[in-house]
Every structure is written in C-alpha cells, then in structure tokens.
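Dear support,

We are seeing what looks like truncated structure output for some complexes. This example has two components. We would appreciate it if you could run it in full and send us the complete token output so we can diff it against ours.
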Amino acid sequence: MMEKGYGSPNSATSGAPRLTVADVSCGYGDSVVLNHVSFSVSAGEVCCILGPNGVGKTTLFKSILGTLPLLGGHVLLDGEDTSELTRIEIARKVGYVPQAHTPPFPFTVLDVVEMGRASHVSLLSSPSAHDREVALEALNTLGIAHLQDRLYTQISGGERQMVILARALAQQADILVMDEPTANLDFGNQIEVLSYVRQLASAGLSVIMTTHAPDHVFWCADKVVAVQNSEQVTIGTVENVMNDELLRRLYNVDASIVSVQTGAKSTKLVVPSLGQARPERTDAISRFLELRDS
Amino acid sequence: MPKLEDQTRQHKSSGTRVLNEQELSLLAEQERSSGRNGIILVVLGISVVALALVSFCLGRFSVSIGDVVSSLGALFSRLASGQSLTFESAVQTVVVNVRLPRVIAAILVGAALAVAGASYQGVFRNPMVSSDILGASAGAGFGASIAILLGAPGAVVQIAAFACGLLAVFVTYAIGNAVGRNDSSTLALVLAGIVVQALFQAFVGIIKYIADPYSQLPEITYWLMGSLATVSFDDIAFMLAPLVIGCVVLIALRWRINLLSFGDEEATALGVNTKRLRLVIIICATLVTSAAVSTAGQVGWIGLVIPHLSRMIVGPNYKHLLPASLLMGSGFLLLVDDVARNIMQAEIPLGILTAIIGAPVFVFLLLKSRKGWS
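Here is the complete output from our reference environment:
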C-alpha cells in the first residue's frame, strides 16, 4: 500500500489540472440537471461553485465523487478517468467534506476521523497505530486535538464541521470536495473554516466548494463556477467572472461589488440593495396587519 | 495562521516524523482507552467461561464444580484417544450428554443473536432494529416450521429458515425504503418490520392450524417459544457451520460497519463499496439468525438489548462493540437458560424469559440514553 503526504512536494507549483470535469452532463435517470459542464482545478487552487438553491450543485458533486453515474462526459483525476478507477483509488485522490450531520451512534471524534482512513485500511482489518497517528495529526493540524475523546454527537456544529474536515485530511487525498462548508456556522466559525480552506490550498491541496455567500468567493477562491440553470454555467477566474450582472442573473437581486481597503489590504464585498420598499408589498403587509386588528 | 503552515510543511516531510510531546501524550491516552476496552473484553470472556462452568453444576441433578472439571477432562481424553463417548457414571452422563450440548448451544445461540442484532443496527443505521424487529426471526421461524411440518431433515430446516429469513429482511428493507423515501428513516423501517413480522406470524399460524395436533403441533409450538431443552450434539453440528461462518465474516468486517452508519454517500466517498458490503453483512447476519432460530426457536430481545448494553460498556465503535456483543450475548443466554431450567418444576420457554427480562431492561436503556430516534 503506497503512502503519501499531503500533496507531492512540487504540487503547489505544478500547473497540470488535478481534477478535470470534461463536458459532463449529470442528473438522475432521464432528468438532466446540468448539461455540458467543463472546468478544471489544479494544485493550490480553490474553486467556488455558486448558484441558487436547487440548481444542481449537489448533483454535480455527486457526479464528481462518483456516487451518481454520469449522463455524459468524463471526470479525470490526475488525468485518469474515474470510470476506470476503483472506489478506493478515487477515495485516495478525493476527500469529501459533506455538511456535518449526526450519525445514529455516539462515536468519539477520534473514531470519526479514523474512518477517513478507510481507503488505506485493508478490507478485513481495523485501523493500525499508524492510521490512528495520521488521524491525530489531522486533528492537530486543524487545532482541534483537544476534541478527540469528545462524542461527535455532542460537540457544536462548528466543531463538527472541523472534525469532518479532519476526516477528509486523514484520507490524505489531494482534492477536497466541500459541500457548503460554512452553512449553519456562526460568523467566527465561517471565517475559521474559510481561512483553513485558503491555507490548505496554499499548502498544495485543491479545493472545490459550494457556497451561498458570494462574499466567500473574494475571501478564498481562485476560480468560480457559477451555475445559473442547466444550460447556463459561467466559468472563469474571480476577477473575470464576478460582477453585478452575474449576481443579478444567479440570484435575481440587485447588488454591487465594492472594493474595501482595510489597512494595506484590499478586499471586495457584495453589497445587496435592500433599498427602496416595493409599494405592492407594503400594501399587502399592511392589509394583513389590519386583518389581525379587526 | 503560521501554525497551520508549519504543520502542513511537517506533514509533507513526514512519513515518519517524530511526534511532539503533546501528541505522544494524546496517543498514550488513546492507547489507554483502547486498552481499557481490551481488558473489558477479557473480563467478559472469563465471565462467559465461569458462567458456563456454573451452568454445568445447576439443575435437578446437582453436580459439584470438581465433578464438572473431571467429567470434561474425561471427555477430552476420550476424544483424544478416540474411545466411545458413553459414560458409566451418572455424573459424567449428565455433564457430558445432557448439559454440555445445552451449554454449547446457549453460548452459540446467544452470541449469534447478539452479533446479528448489532450488525443489523449498523447496516440499517438504526439502533432500534434487531433480528426480531426486521422480521428475520419470524421469517426463519416460518421457514423452519414448514420444513418441520413436511418432516424434512435438519439441514433442510436450516436452509428453509435461512431462505425465509432473508426474504423477510429484504421485504422489510424494501417497504422501509419505499415508505421512508430512501432516507432510511428509523420509524419507517421499524414499522415495515412490524408488518412483515405480523405477516410471517400469520403464515406460521396457518401451519399450526394444519399441523397434526398430537405430534407436530406441540413440537412446533414449543419450539417457537424458544428452548434449548432438546438440543443434541447433532443439532449443534447442523447449526455450527452457518453460525461460525457468518460470525467470522461479520467479525472480520466489523470496523467497516462503522462507515456504513454515516450513510451511503459518505461511506462511498471514503472508499467503501456500500452496496456489496451491506449485502454481505445482511446475508451473514441473517445466516446466523436463522441458524440460531432453527435450533433454539424464537428467542427474542437478545439482538436488541445486548448490543445496547455493550454500547454502554465499550462504546459504539464496532471494532470493540461486535466482540463485546458476542460475549455478552453468550453470557446472557447461559444465564437465562439456567433460570429457565431451575426456577420452576417444569422448564420455562426461553423466549418468554428473554421477553420478561428484555422488555424492562430495554425501557431502562431508552430512559437512560434519552436519545431521540425519529
């Protein structure tokens, strides 16, 4: 069994795409959710997937992870077609960070992180001392080693999200696929998770993540895949793709992207225009409130 | 965050990086807790042996522990030298020919039902299921009763029990999935199990109705209530192979059952072939259930209560949970069988006793864990 660290030594500089989504169509059976999507992610890159609720971001993830059969196209990992890789080979290349939910049994945090070693543990055995060591190092790396003996079902949502990230690190895959890693987290934990995403990428990992907060794109992404509907997908670098027009098309809101100078650094922010009250809504609301009084 | 960068850099250079002090102490802590479970398993193992020895002593014909040991010694020396196994002394006959098969059967059946229950709970991600609740026991009971009705030999009884048990589990699973819309809701699965169980009990009712009331009906009825009273070495020989094969496979795969409890998508992403693993585990759990049922009848509750008790002692990680369930299942059934044959003049059927003990214990566990299970 081959062992490897987090990313090969020169991975942070290599330009070859690690994950290539080539002309992929995905969906369930006859119903196509996304058509002809192509993009790639290289070492050290963070790719954010934006799009309204229910547009098929999760479906795309399932297709990349191979839990849902592709309706067309190919997904390549380091140039190899996933349809020719075994589950274990895929798991050694791609780590999945789902939205944390609680399993039916109260496992300890270390038990959960150790499960990230499944693709390195042979079928009929349990994790070895080395696997346990890797799991502990993953917890240490994220600064949550103190949680190891706590019950996974009893820690906070933010901690649980970090534990799931640690599990994916323990998998020692080069690509992390993160499904709304900041959903249900308070502001502090969102920043915490996103800064880890940024730093893991700087250290050579590749990250694909979905988010509902377009601000996050400016904070940590290099690339954007903006899914408007099954046919219209905008792909490009953050500078090229992110503009007011895109946000209007994606979310049907008026918003402007502004540059903010904080100290020496400049950041961009999305400022929505809650703006003018809509007269028809004001009327409807006041009619309803009158109803209550009568 | 300089710390992270340091750490990641260390990761890159480390296959064999020296752990720092803090990490070493954490590892040592883990070793201790893992060691604690190891000690618990050894203690459980010793308790099972002790309970088995005590079980030889108890009964209408009381035997001293010294006689038990010497009789078993005599048995082994005869087995080793290939002599006949008919004993002259009454003590030896009681220990070897009457109580030994019973003790072995209690150990095997208890272990089988507990291991199957724990495995089903992991595979279905549902702490509220067991062989009984999924309908496996009822299905196996039906298959075995048909075979008994037709006067089939022991091996056929086993096969019929296994086939019907497996059918029952898959019907339950299918109904549960359809009702719960594929999100394997706990409640949907339990309700589906109740339906399937009721259906197979009705089938068994038909068989009882048409069975010969003087010979077959008492046999089927008594056997369904659960008993080890008539177990012979031949019965044990019949159940041994399926039971041991099933248990060995489940024990070998036990750590992977953990992965399934996170759901198919996550388990798949972790590198598990979920469909195949689930199928293998369901088949093995049903195999050991039906082997146990066709020998001992329907002994309920063990598969539900014992895994819960074991979880309270060694935690939910199947690495330790499955061996602990196995040993506790054996010990529990030895104990219950001792009560069954000693507390009253006539023997009490096992299924009745396990229900009387299991039901309140389970309510206690529910109250203690207070874990929502919707």
